[in-house]
Design goal:
With 312 residues, the chain is an alpha/beta fold. The protein is built from 10 helices and 14 strands.
Length: 312
């Protein structure tokens, strides 16, 4: 998730528009570029990234609120490319209203599910004869959960990554309306990058990842640079009761979370686990906050491989 709120410390400001140094594993993963395309889903163009060979088992990565498909560009190659130990056909989309996708007049669980399954078809994730596995981070876990509950026959498995569903009395209703949020134009790319924040706020040690995410969160417009996401998405969004959906999961499923995540307190975890079927797998990632794949990318890869192996 990207946020434009003012905090005392800028993540990328000290680099003055230059990329931070990155380790070799990251450079190797990013060198494996995806195929980029768009697919039309209910009148809106959806950004689609794909990696790996058609005919391999299918894996679809689904990003969080305000993010985009490239949040997975340093993760997907580990599952798609044989040189990194991968053996999957992998895809990622940018949800409508985010990344390189178009915006809608209204957003719903049904339209998000349609986008996910359209990606399955366009990326040929089922060409090998297997149903796909969905991996949804944060907000991306909401449509993943919806699909696992309402369309389980179409999934081999569903993994929720730090997707927080609070008890009913503490459930978040979405942010209040904010005039102009996300529409500010920054004169230079350097200034825009310096304004990039993670939401919810958290520490970030792997700034080379934050830099890639930030650059691909921005678009050039008249007068400078601005964020890609629809600032009004939460005011035009609807989803069924998520707590009820937890109990309706009807395909193999797993819950992964960061042990330091500010969204996955013990009370929240206890509530979610109590609502879920008893056979849902659970995997906390040590030393990780909410953005698990950013905080501990290699541990995330290892953990996800373990979950996938359980369903092999």
């Amino acid at each position: 998730m990207a946020d434009d709120q003012t905090l005392s410390t800028s993540l990328l400001g000290p680099f003055h528009g230059e990329p931070p140094p990155a380790p070799a594993w990251f450079e190797a993963a990013m060198a494996i570029e995806p195929e980029r395309s768009t697919i039309a889903v209910e009148g809106v163009d959806i950004e689609l990234l794909t990696w790996g060979e058609v005919g391999k088992p299918g894996l679809l990565f689904l990003h969080g609120n305000g993010a985009h498909a490239d949040w997975w560009s340093f993760i997907a190659p580990f599952f798609a490319h044989s040189s990194l130990g991968g053996d999957w056909r992998v895809a990622a989309i940018s949800w409508a209203g985010m990344g390189g996708s178009g915006w809608r007049q209204a957003y719903s669980a049904d339209t998000f599910a349609a986008e996910a399954f359209a990606a399955v078809e366009a990326a040929q994730l089922e060409a090998g004869g297997h149903k796909p596995i969905f991996v949804g981070h944060s907000f991306g876990g909401f449509p993943t959960l919806f699909c696992a509950a309402r369309h389980p026959e179409r999934l081999r498995g569903a993994i929720l990554v730090d997707t927080s569903i609070q008890p009913p009395e503490k459930r978040w209703k979405g942010p209040p309306p904010r005039s102009g949020f996300g529409t500010r134009v920054y004169p230079t790319l350097e200034e825009a990058l310096a304004r990039f924040r993670l939401a919810p706020p958290q520490p970030c040690e792997n700034l080379y990842i934050a830099d890639v995410i930030a650059r691909r969160s921005l678009k050039e417009v008249e007068g400078g640079w601005t964020w890609k996401f629809d600032p009004a998405i939460w005011q035009r969004f609807s989803m069924p009761d998520l707590g009820q959906l937890l109990g309706e999961i009807a395909c193999p499923a797993a819950l992964m979370w960061g042990e330091r995540s500010g969204l996955m307190h013990a009370e929240t975890l206890d509530y979610m686990i109590a609502q879920m079927p008893k056979d849902v797998l659970r995997l906390p990632i040590p030393d990780a906050d909410h953005h698990v794949m950013l905080d501990q990318p290699l541990a995330f890869v290892a953990g996800l491989r373990g979950l996938l192996a359980a369903w092999a």
